[in-house]
Structure formats: structure tokens, C-alpha cells
Amino acid sequence: MASRRSFLSGLTFLSIGILGFVSFPAEAAIKKYQFDIQVKNVSRLCHAKPIVTVNGRFPGPTIYVREGDRVMVNVTNYAKYNLSIHWHGLKQYRNGWADGPAYITQCPIQTGKSYTYKFNVTGQRGTLWWHAHILWLRATVYGAIFVMPKQGTPYPFPQPNMEVPVLLGEWWNTDVEEVEKQGTKMGLPPNMSDAHTINGKPGPLFPCSEKHTFAMEVESGKTYLLRIINAALNDELFFGIAGHSMTVVEVDAVYTKPFTTQTILIAPGQTTNVLVQANQVPGRYFMATRAFMDVPIPVDNKTATAILQYKGIPNTVLPTFPQLPAPNDSEFALAYNRKIRSLNTPQFPANVPLKVDRNLFFTVGLGKDPCPTCVNGTRLLASLNNISFVMPQIGLLQAHYFNISGVFKTNFPDKPPTPFNYTGAPLTASLGTVHGTSPRLSKIAFNSTVELVLQDTNLLTVESHPFHLHGYNFFVVGTGIGNFDPAKDPAKYNLVDPMERNTVGVPTGGWTAIRFRADNPGVWFMHCHLELHTGWGLKTAFVVEDGPGPDQSILPPPKDLPPC
């Protein structure tokens, strides 16, 4: 313990863009940022390696905007990888050109080239984030987006004294792209991460982490807003603070009915804002995060920590540790998600579609393809409605906008080709997962209301899957364990104040029903936010048609859109 104590006494406080009182102009402004994609040597866990960064920072810079602002981010790529950036959770109305997923809305920015993402932040406020959207580069290329309310509009909860970004991530000691390539070559899941991180730092439970611990100083009696982002590639995470409860007030940049909890659960791609009161005996308290996994699949089970430290308390005081739920605590996961409800006030209504124009039912499955060069003679893959998505060679949005034929088909099935007992005994028999030579998309009429039920299946194994829909928020109207029953389950939907978000977990061996109004024309990606499963084909896209009005069609592409 002595070595840990001496280490902790040497801990220095780290400034990572903590937002105290930042003044913003009253009118809508143009916010300009320069993102240089560059390789930098970074050391963690006694391992130094070159990583891809934005502006040499890991995590990358925070973007501060106000609701109503216009944002221009010029991205110049100095790295060896072609790359694109996704502004996760921003709706990009009519403006898919700025959405960022490679080969969906744009071709990636090539080495030595630039592209300026230009977008308006309309009708949204809260915590969002940005990340690379190609290969596994988002392991190090990510950062926060703080959208402040319009000038003079208060939060619908007590004004905090300070706001702090808390980005949860993963760290590999070796080159992440090589790890992923090796897995693909072998046909197996790649090696799991070597540590989780909080603001890029794993904390004092790991070797060589003296300098790599995030610490946050608090003053007794003050209230802090933690803006928590799960930027991990493959892990749903618990997060808690020793001795302190948290009040959840927002998820995915949508205000919620406040509720208090000792632990939050946050899936990759999700954000959660919590209020924390510095109302305990002044001391040092660990913030901790570790993975939730309720099936016997190997996962990085190590705990990352940071320190909440009361002002004036010496670094020699050992921090206390929070009680996190057991790693496989499904009951906690289900109960926690049930507590999240939209605020649903006149100012922040929950406009849930009550009538549904289009019913979709997508099964989520894992499978195997023959692969003579792979370890077991097979390669793992993933599918929706038995279709494993094939990536195109040019952006789907370009193909749609310019009517380029042969790039994609719009015959993605509304329901699985063969119904079966989705969550019954494990199914290892191949259902003949379809690849095809081009992606199959789902075409949606403009302004129609869509209900999509995502059903986990026991193809190889059940597992929890966080799904992210680009270009939209949606309402999570129902969720359950087992097979969705179209005769009985809709009667139990919450159509009053369901949570509204952009990324939702489909529970292990269960289903989730979401609703949204397709009022944003374009090509919008929908995929599992576990990078592993996305790479295996657990993704699709919606082609939302143009509407009849002059401001209901896709905007023309920008002149500097990267060439394919």
C-alpha cells in the first residue's frame, strides 16, 4: 500500500477543459474549429505507441456551441489512414453530407486532404460527442460536444456551479488497427482492450499510471454537472462515485425526469448528464467504471478509476471505492433503463408518434461464414433480418442524390424471411446469412411514422446490442425479455413520456421497440455501436425520401466533399 500512497500523494490535478463560467454571445454565432488528424506518441500502462489524434490530444478537443449556432469544422488529414468524423447525435437536417460515416454519407478524407463539416445545431441542447467513423480509429479519435441552451434559457434543473466532461474509453497497448486486422484474418473476435479509461487515463489501479489519473477538485456545498460519454468501442459500462449519489437529468442530449442513483449504466455511443452534490465528509473518493456483460463472452473486466477530491484534502488520504453492481447484473440494467423517462413538459414535450404508418421488425443475429484460411475454418459475422451488410465503394448518399444505379438496392425486408423461436435454445445451424454484392437498404416515405422492433436472437448466443440511428432521435416505447409478442406487447407501451435518445440497448435475449417520424430526408445509417459487431455486418441504412416542400429535400453537396 505504501507505493500506492506515495503515488497518490504525487497526483496532480488535470485540467481537461472543465467548463466553469464560459460566456457565449447572445445571437446565433458561427463557431469555427480546426481539426488536424495527426499521429502522436502516447504512453499508457508502461507502453508507448503512436496513436491517431485530433490536434495531438487524447481525447480530442471539446466543441462548445449554443443551440442555434452554425458550426464549421475543417478536418485536415495528416495520418496514413483515410478517415471521416461523425458528429454523434446531431440531426443534420437535410444535411447528411456533414454526418460523417464513411461510405454511407461521404467517402473518407484521404491522407493530405481536407474537408469542412458545416452544420447547424437546431432544436438540440445537451451533451453529444464526435468520433472517427471508419475502421476502429475511434479508439483514440473522439471528443465531447457541449451544446448550451439558448441565451437566457435556464436548465430545467438546478444550475450547477461547474460542468465537467467525463469521457469513458478503452485502451489497447498495441496498434488498434492491427488488433482488428488480426481478428478479421483469424475469423475470431480481436483481442479485448487492456484497460478502460476516464478522460483518456486508466487511473491508479494500473501500472505506470502515476501521471495517468484524472482528478476533479470539488468544494463542499457546490453542485457539479458531469457530462458522461461512453466512447468505448465494445463495452457497456457501469459508472459510480464512492459515497455520492448522482441525479440523472439528461440522456443523449434530451432532458429526463430527474432520478437519483448510485450507479449509471451507459452503452457505447450514449451520453448521460448527472448532477453530483459535494455534500459528503471532505475527503478523496474514487469514480470508477467497469464493463457490464450478462452472457459468458470474454470482456475487458478491469476497473478504471478517477478521483473526486475535496478542496484542501491532502493527496496522502487514500480514496474510498464505490460499490458497482456485479458485472452480469441484468436486473440492475433493466431496472435502471426503466427509470429513464422524458421530461415531457410544455417547453420540452415528448412528441411520440401515436399512429404508425410503417411497422418494421428486425432480428439481430450472429453467425459464421466458411473461411478456409481462418482458425476454425469459419469467420464470425452479424446480421439484421439475416442480411449481413456489405459496404459500398462510394457514398450511399451520393448514389441516392445523383441517382447512380447499381450501388444499392432498396429491398431490405421489413421482417425476417423465416420466423423462428428467436430466443429459444441456442441456434448454431446456419440460416444462410445473405451477403449479396451490394448493400440492401430500407426506403421510407417522407414524414411517415415508423415503429421498429429490434429482436435479439440466440443465433450462436444472445447478447445486448446498443443500436444507433443517425439523423434522428427516437422514442423507446417498449422493451422486454424473450420474443416480442405483436398481439400483447404493444398494449404495454409507454406512449406518454418514453425516453427519447439516439442510441438504445437491445437487452440480452429480449427486444426493444422504437418510434420516430421520418422527417429528415437522406440516407441514414443504423448500426450496432459495438465496433466489433458493426465490422461483422450488424448495420443497415434507411433511405428517407424527399418531401414535397421546398425545404423538405436533401441540400446540394458541398464543393469540397471528398472524392471517392
UniProtKB/TrEMBL annotation:
Protein's UniProt keywords contain Amino-acid biosynthesis: no
Cofactor section: Cu cation
Cell compartments where the protein resides: Secreted, Extracellular space, Apoplast
CDD domains, sorted: CuRO_1_LCC_plant, CuRO_2_LCC_plant, CuRO_3_LCC_plant
MF annotations from Gene Ontology: copper ion binding; hydroquinone:oxygen oxidoreductase activity
Family annotation (SUPFAM superfamilies): Cupredoxins (SSF49503)
Enzyme class per UniProt: oxidoreductase
Gene Ontology annotations of biological process type: lignin catabolic process
Record's catalysed reaction(s): 4 hydroquinone + O2 = 4 benzosemiquinone + 2 H2O
Cross-referenced InterPro entries: Cu-oxidase-like_N, Cu-oxidase_2nd, Cu-oxidase_C, Cu-oxidase_fam, Cu_oxidase_CS, Cu_oxidase_Cu_BS, Cupredoxin, CuRO_1_LCC
Cofactor binding description: Binds 4 Cu cations per monomer.
Residues annotated as signal peptide: 1-28
UniProt-listed Enzyme Commission number(s): 1.10.3.2
Family note: Belongs to the multicopper oxidase family.
Purpose: Lignin degradation and detoxification of lignin-derived products.
The protein's name in its UniProt record: Laccase
Organism taxonomic ancestry: Eukaryota, Viridiplantae, Streptophyta, Embryophyta, Tracheophyta
